[in-house]
Design brief:
about 230 residues; five-stranded mixed β-sheet; four-stranded antiparallel β-sheet; 6 helices
């Protein structure tokens, strides 16, 4: 996967300016009060404190950058889904593929961004592909901070076996980066079949997913009515 794991680790690492500020304050006092040689020492201590503060921010991704990194992996997975399922692209052009993706919040430590969105190091997405006779799904879950932590799952269903494709909301308590806990809203997509199997994914953008599901639901209803 084309991810900068070390850079992404900085996003989820707790930030503390206190050590740098304390060191800078000590350096400033020594610089002001010290004699000639002491001023040099004070200046060095002050620079050390400034460096500690700088490295807290240097190379740390923004909210937008971490989103682009995560979504980029999922959005490039459509071709991989087709290959893993052994399909030809022309087979699954009945309607446009459906993509649902989001941060995995359950059982994870969350980081609240400046935009108020909760993010975690784990991300997942589901690609749904539609042929004349069947619906195909490909699920990908991966880590933004650890290379090799990837899982994939493929399934295929006849339309008559699809019971529902739906979204649901839940409130869960999670731990926050840096300590403490928070109750957050969890949005989930779920595809359920008559055989009791299901495919789920976290949802990042509920509004977009709800709009996208309309075409899929209509197609499934039409196909089931022909059985």
């Amino acid at each position: 996967m084309d991810l900068d794991y070390k850079k992404n680790q900085k996003y989820f690492k707790p930030m503390s300016l206190k050590p740098g500020l304390v060191l800078a304050a000590v350096g400033l006092l020594v610089l002001i009060a010290g004699p000639g040689a002491g001023k040099v020492v004070g200046l060095l201590i002050l620079a050390g404190g400034a460096a500690l503060i700088y490295f807290q921010f240097a190379g740390r991704p923004t909210d937008e950058e971490i989103d682009r990194a995560a979504m980029g992996v999922v959005r490039s997975s459509q071709q991989r889904a087709i290959a893993k399922l052994g399909l030809d692209e022309d087979q699954v052009k009945v309607i446009d593929p459906l993509l649902i993706d989001g941060y995995v919040l359950r059982n994870e430590t969350v980081k609240r961004g400046k935009d108020g969105v909760f993010r975690t190091p784990r991300y997942e997405g589901v690609v749904l592909l539609f042929s004349e006779q069947q619906l195909y799904s490909y699920k990908l879950q991966f880590s933004l901070v650890e290379d090799g932590r990837v899982s994939e799952q493929t399934d295929e269903y006849f339309y008559r076996d699809v019971v529902s494709i739906s979204t649901a909301s839940d409130s869960i308590k999670v731990s926050e980066v840096g300590g403490g806990s928070k109750t957050v809203n969890l949005e989930l997509f779920k595809l359920t079949t008559s055989g009791g199997t299901s495919v789920t994914s976290a949802i990042r953008d509920e509004g977009q997913v709800t709009r996208s599901l309309q075409g899929a639901r209509q197609l499934i209803r039409e196909k089931k009515s022909l059985v």
